[in-house]
């Protein structure tokens, strides 16, 4: 590219007033995410409006992808601001969320990537039982920018460098996330942010949680159905990040745990023992097996008395409930 630009010195001399500014371009190597800065002429789209005097090599055009469209000619400040707002989108965050900030826990004063990082660290087996706790998400008041390390009040854009700390931001939950493909939304009934899109879910006041619109008129209401632990893995369901399934009886369970039960041929609710799925075909097969196995002739006329042989003790008649 530099050799190609050197051949076009006459173009640069004939256009001395053409503004030049740095634009962020990803490095070609896939082993690193560190950007470098390349001086290119200011234009709206370098692939379509490049000056005839400056020709980009075909290999460069294929491998160069701009992170955001460039502003119109003569507005280099807008390009710099747009680059700062979107810089580091895939370089920062934790294993749970991609974002450009960390939080300071109001309970212990320590800095963590997110509330899940805090809860995992403070509830591990290495921590004393009396010191284990979870972070109160609504009490978070301080965040630290991952780009300039400035500690500040909870807000979407950094007051120091101007970077956007999360494309999705909820000031009620103090929550940041760059992956907006999850379709996050805040539910006032639940009091927390959920994923999946607000148009696809409704909040059931009796159950106290959000359900899919498919269950709006067909689910069996159970009071505070998700305000308890999963009956299999014992994780709290209400704010769990895993997929949750609602059984026909109204009880809730992790979808992964339900699939694990089916692998081990358990098809009933762990709470009330009702069938967790339609068992009509299974019952028909059992009836066919019984019909195909007639009673032996020796036992066909045998009768068994159902009267108890002994009288139960009186002190066991009213056993505890």
From TrEMBL:
- One Pfam entry for this protein is zf-CHY
Task: Kindly list the biological process annotations in GO that this record carries.
Answer: protein ubiquitination; ubiquitin-dependent protein catabolic process
Record flagged with keyword Membrane:
no
What's an example of a GO molecular-function annotation for this chain? zinc ion binding
Q: Which UniProt keywords apply?
A: Metal-binding, Zinc, Zinc-finger
List the SMART domains hit by this protein, alphabetically.
RING
InterPro entries on file: Znf_CHY, Znf_CHY_sf, Znf_CTCHY, Znf_CTCHY_sf, Znf_RING, Znf_RING/FYVE/PHD
The signal peptide here is none
Q: Which residues form the CTCHY-type domain?
A: 165-229
Domain CHY-type per the UniProt entry, residue ranges: 87-163
All copies of the RING-type domain together span 230-273
Which GO CC terms are listed, alphabetically?
A: nucleus
Note the superkingdom of the native organism.
Eukaryota
Entry protein name:
CHY-type domain-containing protein
